[in-house]
Design goal:
Layout (H helix, E strand, L loop, with lengths): L1 H17 L1 E12 L2 E6 L2 E7 L2 E2 L8 H12 L3 E10 L5 E7 L2 E2 H7 L4 E2 L7 H12 L13 H16 L1
Parallel strand pairs: 3-6
Antiparallel strand pairs: 1-2, 1-5, 2-3, 4-8, 5-6, 6-7
Length: 163
C-alpha cells in the first residue's frame, strides 16, 4: 500500500513539477518561433514547441516573423511549457493569446514546419498536411527548404569559407 501511495505521489509530483504556465507581455519577437516575454519584471526567452519557422534570411522568414508579431507583440499571453529548455537556454513552450495557439496558427498558415524531430503531435502533423494540400504560405514554393536543412547548409558554407 505504501509503495502504491508513493508511486501515485511521484506521478502527481512529476505532472505538477514539470508543467509550467506563465503569463506575460510579449516585448520581443526575434523570429517566427522565438519570443521575449516579460513576466514579473524579468524577461524570459521562449522558443515555440512543436514547430520550426523559417530563418530570418530564408524565404518566408520575414512573413513568419510578421505574422507572429501581429499575433502577439505587445499583448499579454499565456505560455505553457513542460519546464524544459533548449540548448540555448530558451524556455520551450506554446504561446496562447485569446485561446489561440500561435504555433498552430503558424503551421496552419504555411509559415512553419511541424518539427517532427522533437514533436510527435498528430495535431501539428495534420495542420501541416492541410497547409501543404492547400498550398498555403511556404507550401506555394516548388521545393521549400526546411529550416533545419537551411541551417545545416549555412553552417557548411561558413566552414568552407573559413578554410
Amino acid at each position: 500500500m505504501r509503495r502504491l501511495l508513493f508511486l501515485l505521489f511521484c506521478v502527481c509530483f512529476y505532472g505538477f513539477g514539470f508543467s509550467q504556465k506563465i503569463s506575460g507581455k510579449v516585448v520581443g519577437v526575434k523570429d517566427g518561433d522565438t519570443f521575449v516575454v516579460l513576466n514579473e519584471h524579468r524577461e524570459i526567452v521562449v522558443r515555440l514547441e512543436h514547430i520550426d519557422a523559417p530563418e530570418k534570411n530564408q524565404p518566408y522568414g520575414a512573413k513568419a516573423k510578421m505574422f507572429a508579431s501581429d499575433f502577439c507583440f505587445g499583448k499579454t499571453v499565456v505560455v505553457i511549457g513542460n519546464g524544459k529548455r533548449d540548448r540555448n537556454g530558451r524556455w520551450i513552450g506554446e504561446i496562447f493569446y485569446k485561446n489561440q495557439n500561435l504555433g498552430k496558427e503558424l503551421v496552419r498558415n504555411g509559415l512553419a514546419w511541424h518539427f517532427k524531430r522533437y514533436s510527435k503531435s498528430e495535431n501539428y502533423a495534420d495542420l501541416e498536411m492541410e497547409a501543404r494540400k492547400k498550398k498555403r504560405g511556404l507550401w506555394q514554393e516548388k521545393e521549400p527548404i526546411a529550416p533545419w536543412e537551411w541551417r545545416k547548409f549555412k553552417k557548411r558554407k561558413f566552414e568552407i569559407v573559413r578554410i
